[in-house]
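R.M. (postdoc): so does anyone remember the format we settled on? I'll just put the structure tokens first.
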């Protein structure tokens, strides 16, 4: 047998840092980087009998966290809270509290009414009473916004269409949040245009807190340092300028023509990357388009070629489907076109089955995987898996697949952490809203070596060693043939 030598292992994981958007935005507001525009804000919260006491407590936590991101004051933001069921109760008037501490304390003391669901009546009360000057509302002005945030979990027992329209015509911007059994059509009747920006749905009250970030951003008006808040699209370095920013790159990288991406001075090593995408019915078609756009944002950062990065795509719901295998496309353009052509499956959420398929099929030689090349799995999901993921996730990592888990909306953090490789905080990402997925695309960068020049040198060295081994094997074969001929002559 020909001698073999151990070669360098080029398996240092993806470079990425998890920056939780909630903490970033909260920190920015805490130091005065983000100022909410002056507004009269009224929360309209459903406490009908279908909302259990523990769930109502979670609603109050959500309210308190949104309030923490506001500039509360007599000339800034004034906050009111309406509690409704079959009747309506004005819990907090716009004129009552001028500090966050007082507001939050008042919110914690609100008790559920536990009767019917008269949502239309609550909106009418907000229009006639809560936003009135007698209750602390300010006169209509282009400088003062009127905002209502409605939280409901059921079907209203009265008409909401006409009263919501009157409220919007009066200049009130309405955000509608549906929970659990909430009717999406009813939410659309209440919400302001565009509906995509003013409607939200969560599967249960246990995850409503994850919408905090969206409302902090929606109500944020003035940003004095876009780099500090993370509201930029620079790949590596952001430099603040008055009212704006510019991008730069770390040593060893150069700024690309688009002004935001960075190109490595030395090429990266080869990678086999498979996207495992949740296509379950909870995502909805409009969000699935955003998912495909997100995939292509990540692909834009890859060095896709025959000798470098190969990309495969798997979609799953109740079943698993290979959209295209590794190595079918060898340039970014073809890969991105194939991603855009992916059709939405719209069924269940069998994440465990999808992970097993990725490991056993997508990364097999028959599906284009290359021997000795680092394998990377990027798993996207928006909800709880309907099957067990522990064993398949463990198997993938034990076989050397570098696993990244990305969750949106109702995704379960414990499941994301089970999927993610170590160190876990660097390998799982979460955002409450599909519209903010681009923040994750900015953070998730694929590279094998922390120092690309060193990585390139190691790759070149490995190739030289392999070439030397092949030459040595040929010489050994030639010597063996000569020895065999000599032995024949001696005999």
């Amino acid at each position: 047998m020909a001698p073999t030598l151990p070669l360098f292992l080029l398996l240092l994981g993806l470079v990425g840092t998890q920056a939780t958007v909630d903490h970033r935005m909260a920190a920015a507001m805490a130091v005065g980087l983000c100022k909410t525009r002056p507004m009269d804000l009224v929360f309209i919260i459903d406490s009908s009998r279908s909302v259990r006491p523990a769930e109502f407590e979670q609603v109050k936590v959500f309210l308190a966290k949104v309030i923490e991101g506001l500039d509360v004051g007599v000339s800034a933001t004034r906050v009111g809270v309406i509690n409704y069921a079959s009747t309506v109760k004005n819990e907090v008037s716009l004129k009552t509290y001028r500090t966050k501490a007082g507001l939050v304390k008042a919110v914690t003391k609100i008790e559920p009414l536990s009767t019917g669901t008269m949502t239309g009546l609550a909106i009418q009360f907000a229009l006639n009473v809560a936003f009135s000057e007698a209750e602390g509302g300010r006169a209509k002005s282009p400088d003062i916004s009127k905002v209502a945030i409605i939280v409901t979990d059921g079907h209203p027992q009265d008409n909401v269409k006409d009263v919501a329209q009157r409220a919007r015509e009066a200049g009130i911007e309405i955000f509608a949040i549906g929970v659990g059994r909430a009717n999406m059509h009813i939410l659309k009747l209440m919400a302001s245009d565009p509906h995509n920006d003013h409607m939200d749905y969560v599967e249960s009250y246990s995850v409503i807190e994850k919408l905090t970030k969206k409302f902090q951003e929606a109500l944020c008006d003035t940003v004095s340092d876009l780099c500090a808040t993370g509201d930029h699209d620079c790949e590596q370095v952001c430099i603040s300028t008055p009212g704006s920013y510019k991008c730069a790159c770390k040593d060893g990288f150069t700024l690309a023509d688009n002004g935001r991406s960075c190109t490595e001075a030395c090429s990266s090593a080869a990678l086999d990357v498979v996207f495992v995408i949740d296509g379950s019915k909870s995502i909805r078609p409009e969000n699935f388009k955003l998912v495909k756009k997100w995939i292509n944002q990540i692909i834009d950062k890859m060095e896709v070629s025959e000798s470098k990065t190969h990309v495969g795509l798997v979609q799953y719901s109740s079943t698993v489907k290979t959209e295209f295998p590794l190595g079918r496309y060898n340039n970014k353009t073809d890969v991105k076109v194939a991603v855009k052509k992916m059709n939405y499956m719209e069924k269940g959420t069998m994440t465990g089955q999808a992970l097993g398929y990725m490991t056993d099929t997508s990364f097999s030689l028959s599906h284009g995987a290359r021997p000795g090349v680092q394998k990377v799995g990027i798993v996207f999901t928006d909800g709880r898996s309907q099957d067990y993921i522990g064993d398949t996730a463990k198997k993938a990592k034990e076989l050397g697949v570098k696993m990244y888990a990305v969750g949106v909306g109702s995704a379960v953090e414990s499941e994301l952490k089970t999927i993610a490789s170590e160190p876990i905080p660097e390998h799982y990402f979460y955002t409450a809203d599909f519209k903010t997925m681009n923040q994750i695309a900015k953070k998730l960068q694929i590279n094998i070596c922390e120092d690309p020049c060193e990585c390139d040198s190691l790759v070149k060295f490995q190739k030289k060693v392999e070439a030397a081994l092949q030459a040595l094997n040929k010489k050994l074969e030639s010597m063996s043939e000569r020895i065999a001929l000599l032995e024949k002559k001696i005999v």
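R.M.: ...and that's the designed sequence above, right after the tokens. Also worth knowing: DSSP finds 16 helices and 18 strands in the chain. Residues 274 and 364 are 12 Å apart (CA to CA).
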